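Hello everyone,

My group is preparing for a crystallization screen and wants a predicted model to guide construct design. The compound we'll soak is pyridoxal-5'-phosphate. Before spending weeks at the bench, it would help to have a computed complex in hand. I've included the protein sequence and the ligand's SMILES below. Output in structure-token form would be ideal because that's what our pipeline reads.
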Amino acid sequence: MDGAVIPVAEARIGVTDWGVTHSDTVYDVVPVRDGAFFRLADYIARFRDSMDSGRFDIGMDGRDIAAALTAMVARSGLRDAYCAMVAMRGVPQLPGSRDPRDCKNHFYAWAVPYVHVIRPETLAQGAKLWVGKGMRRIPADSVNPRAKNYHWGDFTAGLFEAKEAGFETVVLLDHAGNLTEGPGFNLFALIGGKVVTPDTGVLHGVTRRTVLDICAEIGLDCETRALPLDQLWTADEVFLSSSGGGVLPIVQVDDRIFANGAPGPVAARLSRLYWDWTARAQYRTEIAYPDG
Ligand SMILES: Cc1ncc(COP(=O)(O)O)c(C=O)c1O
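Reply:
Good plan to model first. Here are the tokens for the complex, ready for your pipeline.
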């Protein structure tokens, strides 16, 4: 924060920052596995695209951002981490101004131990996914879902529904009845032997890309296209992708059971391969920790 590495509990943001009062912020999260960032350049490229889309200027290039993240994670000592980078609109330099061009944008980052969007124990027992009923995903022409953002009102409402119904998490439909994504993940279905994932109205997850890359390598056909809810019911398997856990098999969506109620063979294989890929030198940016 402001160029210094400090304990998370000591980090402060002003209450009048537009990042707080207007959710006027973009962010990204890169995973650290076994002492290295995974696909760091891809996460930073997406973060920079998100900033361009929201017209943020933090005065740092990709190399500056990588250096800040590396210094922070090295100091934290964390070998497996959830490493977030954030650009906030800031406060107007002219007090009282309502013009976003007057705001001094700023950057900060934070790292905590690795986060699983669904706990591994829950996945092993069979994770259940709820399709949001009362809330649709905010339209892509209202908030750009490809610019990673903190507009989570729709997801939070969906999570209340899911939790109250006894489900682990939620996926939201768009206004045309197509599946989109959920809080922290993209959605996949295995339909007629093909791996299908929604292409519009979603963040293009780096894990989603890794899944598509793995499928290409092992010769599994993929389709990125609209996925209407009624097609999901014909799927053999359903799974999620996230930097918080890789490939996450789902055994139940609403009242429908998939893959006989156990993680499906394709999802299980992709999950194993995802972890293998995090060990590939070409995708790793090793971190030099002060204690070696
Ligand atoms: C809304 C949303 N969709 C998808 C994802 C998955 O993206 P990634 O694989 O880059 O973590 C996330 C990650 O946090 C997300 O917040």
